[in-house]
Specification:
Layout (H helix, E strand, L loop, with lengths): L2 H17 L5 H12 L3 H29 L1 H20 L4 H18 L1 H12 L4 H11 L2 H16 L1 H21 L12 H5 L9 H35 L4 H8 L2 H13 L7 H22 L4 H27 L4 H8 L1 H21 L4 H23 L1
Helix pairs in contact: 1-6, 1-7, 1-8, 1-9, 2-3, 2-8, 3-4, 3-5, 3-6, 3-16, 3-17, 4-5, 4-6, 4-9, 6-7, 6-16, 7-13, 7-15, 8-9, 11-12, 11-15, 11-17, 11-18, 13-15, 14-15, 14-18
Length: 389
């Protein structure tokens, strides 16, 4: 199985999956709330339910991918995405909005990055790092494509038809793309990639496994908490730092391209380095940006956005590659799902928790996220020491 077609297939389908789920509420929350007579916060509460459901579904989806490959799981997720989006388009009551997003959480648990990464590992084993990086390069444009398209659909046809269009795209585009994936990994004698990359077991002794897993889960939780908190509150933070409203929105928009740039750096300059090194550098980027804001104020807002985006882009790849390096490819999918459970839980609460900090501390709240980043960097250093031993 050639890696490039796999990367393209998964990258395109992931772009559509992220654009139609994770990035949907930012554009449609106001319209949904106004139509149904509920607050924007209530709509985001339903989205948080989806994240919690995805945390519960992730380990099961990973286990199924380990056993059967990613094609049936990802195809099933497209069907569930379509049903959930169609259900959301017909919602007339807040409870129906929550039910539709809970169903969306099932699709997210089996159809976003963790499932795509597990599929890549199932197909390519220890050689999946470049495929994982390539997938994130494609999907890094999910917000760039999804936000304008959703906004245009909403303004032209309404939020209900926007949901129906996304549901149709899952059936017409994403489902066929995932259907073209191999059903399962070929045997070594039939696949050069697999034959040239034998199974690599965990690099850790049994007594070190649990400790490394806890540290890794903590790092992933910090990465997702910070990413989600910044996605929800970055423009507000930049205004608190002294930027104008227009400048704050413009600077916040730089985060997306910076994430793609970070992934390009990982794909090119850092591809021969150990993922632990690139992860530690990436984890320090957000604290460095917070320091710039603390020292220079609004004049460093652009530097902060670029540093945060670069670090976040590389960390997305680390979430896929670190478990592969430390624990090997056997059972990768289920293990990845379990490691991401804490991350999904804190991600669900990040907008509210960090929002309280922003209201009380203003830009001082960045010291919280910066402190978490430093703690995660220390955890990664401990993992590096364990690996050297």
């Amino acid at each position: 199985m050639q890696k490039r077609p796999t990367t393209v297939l998964l990258g395109l389908s992931q772009t559509l999956a992220w654009a139609s789920s994770y990035y949907l509420p930012a554009i449609l929350a106001d319209a949904v709330g106004k139509d149904l007579g509920i607050s924007r916060g209530t709509v985001f509460g339903a989205f948080s339910v989806a994240l919690l459901v995805s945390a519960a579904i992730g380990p099961l989806a990973g286990k199924l991918i380990d056993r059967w490959g990613g094609r049936p799981v990802l195809m099933s997720s497209n069907l569930v995405f379509a049903i959930a989006l169609a259900a959301l388009s017909q919602a007339q009551h807040p409870l129906q909005v929550f039910a539709a997003w809970a169903l969306m959480g099932v699709a997210m648990g089996g159809g976003l990055y963790e499932a795509a990464f597990a599929t890549a590992v199932h197909l390519h084993g220890q050689g999946a790092r470049r495929t994982i990086t390539g997938i994130t390069l494609f999907a890094g444009f999910a917000s760039t494509i999804g936000w304008p398209l959703t906004a245009w659909l909403n303004s032209s046809f309404g939020w209900r038809d926007a949901c129906l269009v996304w549901a149709s795209l899952h059936l017409v585009i994403a489902l066929p793309l995932n259907a073209m994936l191999p059903a399962t990994v070929r045997k070594p004698k039939d696949a050069e990639d697999v034959a040239s990359r034998p199974e690599q077991p965990s690099v850790l002794a049994a007594d070190q496994w649990r400790s490394a897993a806890v540290l890794m889960a903590f790092v992933f939780a910090v990465a997702w908490f910070t990413s989600t908190a910044m996605a929800a509150h970055l423009p507000h933070l930049l205004r608190d730092a002294g930027a104008t409203a227009a400048a704050a929105v413009g600077i916040a928009a730089v985060v997306g391209p910076a994430q793609v740039a970070g992934r390009l750096i990982e794909f090119s300059f850092l591809r021969r380095t150990h993922p632990l090194l690139s992860s530690r550098l990436a984890m320090l980027a957000h604290p460095l940006g917070a320091l710039c804001i603390g020292v220079f104020g609004s004049s460093a807002a652009l530097a902060f956005a670029v540093l945060h985006g670069l670090g976040n882009g590389i960390l997305t790849i680390a979430i896929g590659t670190l478990p592969l390096i430390f624990f090997g490819s056997k059972g990768y999918g289920q293990r990845q799902g379990l490691l991401m459970v804490p991350a999904r839980i804190v991600q669900a609460g990040a907008p509210f928790i960090f929002g309280v900090a922003v209201e009380r501390l203003g830009t001082g709240s960045l010291w919280i996220s910066a402190g978490l980043g430093l703690a995660a960097s220390i955890a990664l250093t401990r993992m590096a020491v364990k690996m050297r031993r």
